[in-house]
Amino acid sequence: MNGKFVTFEGPDGAGKTSVMNKVIVPIKQEIGNRLLVTREPGGNKISEEIRHVILNRDNTEMDYRTEALLYAAARRQHLIETILPALDAGKLVLCDRYVDSSVAYQGAGRGIGMDQVARMNEFATEALLPAKTIYFDIPVEIGLNRISKHRDSSKIDRLDVETTAFHKRVHAGYMEIRKNNPDRFVTIDATQSFSQVVADTLDTIHQIAAEYFKES
Asked: Is residue 125 marked as binding?
């Protein structure tokens, strides 16, 4: 592959999606169509349809393993149809969530087992991992408080309304993943002001994908 794959990860309320939406504006101005911005679950028609099923707050009866399998299925389609073609074309791919989310949320949060979910996704992705993962770290209570205060009720999904204990398990899962992948993870303190988090994120992207900006 000629491109570079960078993912954004973090617990609920960390603000990673808002930060991504902010940083892509100047990045697009610098590198133009050599940038692809996408998300999981989603990123193309089939994966977005699976996203709706997974996150629909009415689907309270969904089995945890079904949930994990749906995420992996959406990820497979996203990879084949969207991510790999962009990487083959030499693009910088910024993706809002990827495998680490499943390992943290379903593996640790749901208690299915982090190793089991990782193996499931290894099959789905043929073991493709990002070059770098930007992790937005925030204490669970602060993140959930942000959601309750600032997120539009129409955008609160099935995972947002889970218990604090669930979100603490997710955070602990992320800490374990980060510990096991020190070379891949770059951590940003998401408790800082939004403008500072955006600035730190832009600096990080310029560092880890410097070759794109030198050519622009």
From this structure: no
